[in-house]
Specification:
This protein is mostly helical and 40 residues long. The chain has one helix and no strands. Keywords: Membrane, Transmembrane, Transmembrane helix.
Amino acid sequence: MLKQDIHKSWQRFKIGLSIFVVGVLLLFTLSELHITLHYL
C-alpha cells in the first residue's frame, strides 16, 4: 500500500516538474524573442 502511494506521488512530482520546466523554458524563449524583436 505504502509503496504504491510513493509511486503515485513520485509520478505526480515528475509531472509537476515537467510542467514547471516547460513553463520556465517557454518564459525564457518568449523573453529571448521579445529582446530579439526589440532590437530588430
